[in-house]
Amino acid sequence: MKALRFLIAPVLAAGLAVSAFAGEWMTDYGAALAMSKKTGKPILADFTGSDWCGWCIRLKKEVFTKPDFAAWAKKNVILLELDYPRRTPQSAAIKNQNEGLAAKYKIQGYPTILFLGSKGQVLWQYGYDEGGPKVWTSKVDKMLKGKKV
Length: 149
What we know:
Low-confidence stretches: 3-21
Structural class: alpha+beta
Distance between the termini: 41 Å
Helix content: 40-55%
Oligomer: single chain
Number of helices: 6
CATH class: Alpha Beta
Strand order of the largest sheet: 2-1-3-4
Number of domains: 1
Strand content: 5-15%
């Protein structure tokens, strides 16, 4: 059984790295920081109430689920979802992590999008904006221009 763990752990770690490179949403803040440091890309941290916040749901539907956004994200950012659901169950570890991060970054409303550097520093803050993925990402590109990760 121990030998099996030694085989599985690297495969799982590689899977997390591949999913982050593929533009999929991570949920582990520490892993996102490490990936940011490794790639030089900022973290797009989405503080969301996925099952109750109307603007969060709208942002996800209009921007974050679109192929244009996925392609942009894959090239430009590490995606991190920090969810504060009311009905959807979460592990205690994720819930504690997310509550701590909401306090650390003084999150007052949802959705809040923070762009973070590899040390957790806030580069920029954003939220919902109408116009779909092309409008949203073009504004973000302007915000992030010249910011150090």
